Amino acid sequence: MSQLPRAPLTPLVAGEHHLPRELGAYLVKVLRLRAGDAFVLFDPDAGIEADAELVRDVPAVARVWETRRAPRLSRREVTLLQGLAKGDKPEQVLRAAVALGAAAVTFVRTERSVAGAELRADRLRAVMLDAARQCGRGDLPKLGGLVDLEAALNASDGLGLLLDPDAGESLVDFLRTVAPQHALALAVGPEGGFSLAEVQQLLAAGFQPVRLAPYVLRTELAAVAALSVVAAHE
Amino acid sequence: MSQLPRAPLTPLVAGEHHLPRELGAYLVKVLRLRAGDAFVLFDPDAGIEADAELVRDVPAVARVWETRRAPRLSRREVTLLQGLAKGDKPEQVLRAAVALGAAAVTFVRTERSVAGAELRADRLRAVMLDAARQCGRGDLPKLGGLVDLEAALNASDGLGLLLDPDAGESLVDFLRTVAPQHALALAVGPEGGFSLAEVQQLLAAGFQPVRLAPYVLRTELAAVAALSVVAAHE
Hints:
The structure is a homodimer. The first copy, chain A, is 30% helix and 26% strand. By secondary structure, chain A is of the alpha/beta class. Chain A folds into two domains: 64 residues, CATH 2.40.240.20; 155 residues, SPOUT methyltransferase, trefoil knot domain (Alpha/beta knot), CATH 3.40.1280. In chain A, α3 links the parallel β8 and β9. Chain A starts with 5 loop residues before the first strand and ends with a helix.
């Protein structure tokens, strides 16, 4: 790939600037840029990016050209409501969700989530920035949670879909019936799935059960697979 | 999920048996089974499984009921030809490929693969067994490689598809034109993609470019996303 290396910088304005020390070290030591090399800076909060050139490496100075709107990956607004799972699974899911164009990811505390688990917002933001840098995305999904299911449902937009391997309708058949730009909310249970009460709560909120495949997938794989299928249907 | 815990055992025959020490420790210490608990044993080489009961825990003795054919996840034979990527990416891809029903995974040494990289067959088999145990699959994908592209193409069956974000046809549109049981071979480049020469070799072998999404995905995510889309179209 001839893609230029990318790095996040907020705020991002045109001109010649000293870069923050950490960013300079990243450009020189990790991306191995030298004075004269071209790269791209993006500001995921503003959704803009700019071509840049490293003018000096230590301390790092960059020339930043005019900013432009950063490309969004997806026309469709997809919100993932993800039952909180153990360990680094939230990070795995979030990384894939960035690359697959999700507009929002909300982590939901469920009956079968590990009691007392918390998420570190700074760590999740770092994961999203890194994923956005790698995949060329110029914005970040809106991160929600950790919230309970009721709060997640109140805040969720779009046609609700509940992944369920026993559902009569397949996600693929469903996607054939909705316009490619129609907003969707995908609910994916934690390890062990949503409880019966939670499923009823989702159904009462208008979520429709669809099956991804006729067999059970691990929670983190189910989320990635569902986002992949939705992204492939744009 | 009310699914019973699963563990691999080869060969698998009905009767009352002392279990291998390592399997016994796994059942008692990891799965926390006690005497009287039910579980499932599967033999992925024979593609069979059987209900079992732990009769004694240390040393572990199990009663194994009649064996049956283990369920296959997928009707479709899908072969993944995966350009060898760095680090634990082959393992990540393999784990997902087991859960998404791939019939075969062949790792391919490409121009942009890390020079001198090798795969450890014992380690990959352990990853596949663990994934099969988790997802309820009773067989394992046929593992191929590390081979060069020519050998992989000579051994590959099915309609060949080459993932390419710039392809005119989408994978979804393509899948609408083939029967759900038609065998497929999916070629996914390594980090940095296939070289031009390799792309020409794939095209000459009849592989057809299709795009998964209109943007570039990391190699390990591209494989998982493509397998997800294929699995969702059964």
